[in-house]
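Hi everyone, sorry if this is the wrong subforum. Our group has a chain we'd like a structural model of before ordering constructs, and none of us has done structure prediction before. Sequence below.
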Amino acid sequence: MTLYDIPLRTLSGEATSLGDYRGQAVLVVNVASKCGLTPQYAGLERLQKEYGDRGFTVLGVPCNQFGGQEPGSPEEIATFCSATYGVSFPMLEKTDVNGEGRHPLYAELTQVADADGEAGDVQWNFEKFLISPKGEVTRFRPGTEPESPEVLAAVEAVLSA
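Answer:
Right subforum, don't worry. Here is the predicted structure as tokens:
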């Protein structure tokens, strides 16, 4: 099984997978509505607007494992994202990214090391995994802003490859 074959569900409960984005660049981000990093939604949306027509999408993955900072229902999450940040990128259902109930997507993604060579558990909300059109993964920790030079360079590189 590849990353593209792992079954996923949208925030509205529909079946999907990364296979729907095969050949594109996807930035998978575990998100939360009540976190100090929640303003990163604005940068994520700007990335979506800037690169969406070039075969790129942000994929938001709500997670309530870090301080209970995503307690809402799917409807509440969708409303918050739309009303507060104008989110237009796709969102998945609320998902565990660490621990025994870790989603298979994150079981794969967390094997990838970050720039410091560290793999393992997601550290906090807004950890980012850039999946290239060829399926290669680059990991950015939560404190790395969506529009940081390293994220922008990585997105440009995979879209130009």
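For your construct planning: Strands lie at 7-9, 15-17, 25-31, 56-62, 128-131, 137-140. The first strand starts at residue 7 and ends at 9.
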